[in-house]
What does this fold into?
Amino acid sequence: MVYTKTQFVRFTSALILKSGSVLPETTVAYETYGQLNSNRSNAILICHAFTGDAHAAFFHEGDTKPGWWDEMIGPGKPFDTDKFFIICSNVLGSCKGTTGPASVDPATGHPYGLTFPVITIHDMVALQKMLVDHLGIERLLCVAGGSMGGMQALTWAATYPDAVASAIVIAACHRHTAQQIAFHEVGRQAVMSDPDWQSGNYYGHSIPKRGLAVARMIGHITYMSWSSMDKKFGRNLVGKNVSYNFSKEFQVEGYLEHRGQTFVDRFDANSYLYLTKAMDYFDLTAEGRKLTDVLRNVAQDLLIISFQSDWLYPSDQSREMVRALKANDTDVSYIEIKSDYGHDAFLMECPDQARAITNYLAKVSFERRET
It folds into this structure.
């Protein structure tokens, strides 16, 4: 086993958010894997999805499971730590070590709760840029991520074109649709309807377990595909016969309850609200801008990956990004992968994804050496 530790850096310079609010200081949790080369040209930033964290690979001391993308990061893997220096940081607003609503407000000495300012994907990326600068890296070889991580990677490409050479955007979009917002709103209402939520001031008291569990159950359905759920559960019963009551008789019911209950043990309800809202605000074409115009300054080489069975972030949204980039003569590669896993496919063992990323990074690494 290869072991790693989470590191922390505290920034005392103010972070001005897109809303105009200011965070006077921030802490970032991050991990690194591999070695930074002498000219600092082999650094790759991995951006995690909604409920992820900085622990992307390897093991923490005492853990039985590795980081959330260990399938993809490590020696000989697509994000090869024998070649690349991999960075993964926990996003702003999360509850996994980076400043968020559960953090202590230095002005009051109490958790922020709902006094924490509303954040955006752009704000997450701005804090990541502060971390990358802190590490002394002028230009990243690549920024990569899936789902909310893909939104971050796309934002990096559009916002800091000189600071990153390439980007990998997986199972993501350039703006949230009404349906995507709707699923998040149902989840938020589940959290806020729990009496234990107490308008976000539950720290030190009972946490809104039931509301957060229901929110996770709703979300998890969207991460799977029809075929994956049917293959995994079908209409299988827990027992031999139906009992004609409201107990959890179908296996899928028990599975969702389990997913919800395990989630409340590792995630903060207010972070759930803030991060889903950040994704809902995500819209590169806000204020009537055209996507081609927004992406006109993208100078990087991009790889965009979608999954055929992903109905939460369908391939049409990826193809829309590809068309806008091609209209600007941007070097972009696109692959739609057949998989039954739905939106969560990018987190699973997926040979086609692994092969595409391995080949892509070999190309961009060669091109960077040649320039």
Summary: The chain has two domains: 7-176+283-370, 180-278.
